[in-house]
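hey can u check if this looks right to u? its 158 residues, i copy pasted from the old doc so theres a chance i mangled smth
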Amino acid sequence: MHDLQSLLIVVAVIVFVIVRRFTARRVDESRFLVLPLIVAVIGLTRGSLLGTHHQTLSAGLLAGEILAALLLGLGLGATMRVWRAPDGALWSRGTWATFGVFLLSVAVRGGMAAAGHVAGIKTGGGAVLLSVAAWMLTQNAVLMWRARALPARVSVAP
């Protein structure tokens, strides 16, 4: 049951992220850490970060998953469209390239889980949630960096 709950949380977070990434939304710097931190805390409190057998291999797999999540998060943040509205507000929306990187993220995570399973590593949802949090945090950080790099709104005096 514990794994089913973790799976449902992961699916809910991913659906939420997909919807948020592919609809135009205002970039809000004050909230870009909130969801990744919540997901990370849930992942850490769920436990099951490392398998009970093959501790070293399990730790290596978790590190690899987090590294892959960070790199794929960079790709997601880099492929999103970011613009400044006439009122000066910052907006973002995912592109087809963002969707492609998202699919790659799912494939990489699935491949790593399959490799861990073949090696006899059984981790729970905590590891998945921790890598999802790293993935979200990285894409949000890249998005914030790109948004800050946009020129400020130019006002024309009447």
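The longest helix spans residues 55-79.
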